[in-house]
Amino acid sequence: MIYIILMLFLLAYLVFLFRNIGEKKNILIMDKSIIFSIIILLIFITSVFFNTSKITQHHEYDKILMKHQEIRTNISNIKKNIPKLKSKLEKDPAYYQGWVMLAKSYLITDNLLSSSYAYEKAISLKSDDKIILEEYISSLINLNPKSYKEKILKTFNQILALDNTDINIYNMQLNYSIKINDSSLTRQILKNIIENPNISNKEQYILALEEMEISIDNFELQIILSNKIYNKLKDTTNIFFILKEFSEGPPFAVYRVKGINLKQKISINTNNKMIKDIPTPKKVYLYIKTSFKETVDANLTEIYKSDPINLSKEQQYKID
Fold this sequence. Notes:
Helix 1 runs antiparallel to helix 2, helix 8 packs antiparallel against helix 9 and helix 9 runs antiparallel to helix 10. Strand 2 and strand 3 form a beta hairpin. About 0% of the residues have low confidence. The longest helix is centred in the first third of the chain and has 34 residues. This protein folds into three domains: about 50 residues, no CATH class; about 130 residues, Serine Threonine Protein Phosphatase 5, Tetratricopeptide repeat (Alpha Horseshoe), CATH 1.25.40.10; about 100 residues. Strands 2, 3, 5, 6 and 7 form a five-stranded antiparallel beta sheet that branches. By secondary structure, the protein is of the alpha+beta class.
């Protein structure tokens, strides 16, 4: 419509332009130059209209409308067939494909709760179909990702038990953990990927885990003592396991235990930080020192000093 209005305005403009009211002899409307200019203008406007209005693509719009109508018709037919399918399954509850069809039917009609129930029935009959297991997970995530966390994680484990080399499943797991904002689950999935010998190209996952470990303040380091050093330490009064970011400087974390209570496995974690709000360093040194006193001072006897320990990668440290 706007092109027609524009054409009328331009036509009027050309008429007044060529008629030059100040002259004694006016130019006729049928003058060849006016006709030629109008024809050129009309051709130009028509060309622009056809190129920008997409009027020539009306058949594409018709196809889209037909496709939408077809989808609506299919959904309507699916809704009508659901009661018939349920009736058949009541007579034959062991019909695996029937439960799969019912689950997909409910999924298409946006009945997620009924869909998840039908998927559960199908999986109880056959639990080695990866595609169906993935669809079941998706239905639970869409239904309520946090409320169904236990079922979702259990199903992920079922899929990985079938094939633990499929990186797409691990990525699906990661997306889920991020969706529910579970950082500990995200870290565990990243560790599972990194520790899996059947998965290659792990650099991005290693980097992601390192960045996560650096960004959080929580940490835990398990120290395993050899028999030799254990026997040496257990006869002392007080034993201090000290973590330092630098050789010189204050301790980052300290764990004290009496010799009579010493075990061969010691855990130092966030609760042992000297300053609770201090960021967890990426690398630390472990010192083992003893004393008759129960407090840290300059007179502690040093028994052991470690090489640098990467807290973002090592959760366990063995002392020979």
